[in-house]
Amino acid sequence: MGFQFQSGAVFARSDLLLEGLLQTLQLAGTAIVFGGLLGTLLAGLRSLAPRAAGMLIDIYVELIRNTPFLVQLLIIYFGLPSIGMKLSAEQAALIGLVVYLGAYVTEIVRAGIESVHKSQIEAGLSLALTRWQVFRYIVLAPAIARVWPALASQFVLVTLATSVCSFISVQELSAQASNIESDTFRSFETYITVAVIYLVVALALRGLLAGLGAVVFPAGSGLGRLRGQSGA
Known about the structure:
By secondary structure, the chain is mainly alpha-helical. It has helices at about 10, 15-50, 50-65, 70-80, 90-115, 120-125, 130-160, 175-185, 185-215, 225-230.
């Protein structure tokens, strides 16, 4: 008996797909904001803090980047309760995503910071800017502008990584797909539909981040603008 593609049963459960999609977007959006902030902060500390603090940050980055995200998630969800830190599945997923993304953002932003030439820092100091202004406008802003495509790609990847959270019963898109497949027994149609949804989300997010980068980091911003501010 030949296979017949029947998507009607899957789309009849579109409420579950929508619920899962909203959970996925909520997890991804929150993780991008807090993971991005964590990584940027740690990258700044890595460049400015004493050597001992820098070594601790390096250990964190290497530990997270060289172990599977699923294992990290299982440690947070099943391991932390053994020391008295009981978390819901959603809380564990969010913490895991933030910690995971933060490590990658730290390394990406650090590379951007190291690409800023020392002569630009000296030029900023010669304009009577404070060290905070020099770091914020001359070091950090150009650094993020240079690595923005890499950051955007990492944000898309962490959005797709939310699918792993289904292993701890977070009812995001992949988990809802599993529920639909169990009810309808239409595995191929269910997962093809979910794959298309993930593809649309990834492409839309990539376009949104590219547009955001063009607005936030326009060509010509940087030291020239600072000269105008210092002369005002």
